[in-house]
Amino acid sequence: MDISNWLALAAGFLLTLVIGRFLIPELRKLKAGQEIREDGPKWHAGKAGTPTMGGIMFIIGTGVTVIVLGWGRMLAGDFAHLYVYLFALVFGLIGFVDDYRKVRQHQNEGLTAKQKFVLQLAAAVVFLSLMRYEGLLTNNLYIPFVNVTLTINWVVYLIFAAFVIVGCVNAVNLTDGIDGLAASVTFVVMVFFTVAAAAVYGAGLALLPAALAGGLVAFFVYNHHPAKVFMGDTGSLFLGGAVAALAFAMDMPLVLIPVGVIYIAETVSDIIQVGYFKATHGKRFFKMAPLHHHLELCGWSEAKLVAVFSLITLVGCALAWLGIQGKL
To answer: Is the pTM of this model over 0.70?
Structure first.
């Protein structure tokens, strides 16, 4: 890792930590409290009213860091880290609208599923087209572990990529269900992308995941159990956008499988629950979905869930690192 990446991590941490000190009181004043699912674990009822939209702190902290530290690179014509940030920011804005509507209407539903899907799909297509136009994205699909690259028709690749991005973003969003979970899991993922981007592309692209990794550590200071603030859809959709965009910017979207093993498990558990419920006319496969809520109802503490899921992610990232050695 370049010194600039270490600086990005430190700056992302410090800026997010400072912003959080001012942001949380303001969110309380705005009465931006989280509405809790009525069918969720009963002990979650005590979290009602905890400020949400806290993701704003690491979004701003990361943004300032990548612009300031990446300014020289942008003057030299390297905008990769900025494009990834702006793409994630668009998803963060979609999440902000969703959170704002929830706060104003005082219920746990904001934008409809159809509205979110259309906005997210449009954002994905625009990002992919821009990256293609700038020469930062190819239609070559790199397959980890076997070190094989397949060239795919651009239109087919665009459709594939758009749906992978939307799926990834919503998988990260599902993971944000208990104190510190999405932040800790995604911190590990961002460390992987920092090291991988620095090894494959140099320090430029690595600025974004490094800054965000630092920001997530600072956010965890406020978000660990019992949380003083939640990231909301503002934060979780931003994180999902960053994870997906980095994978495609590095031309290795299939690395999302081992890296995002927890995101995938959470999503699959939700799909199984819904499918089983419909097929059996009301029976449940899990005590509650997604997976982290099922484990909670089985007696796991939030701290244990965060630790185990982060460790599993670390193993997935280590496997992913071994899988991309042919690309280094």
So the answer is: yes
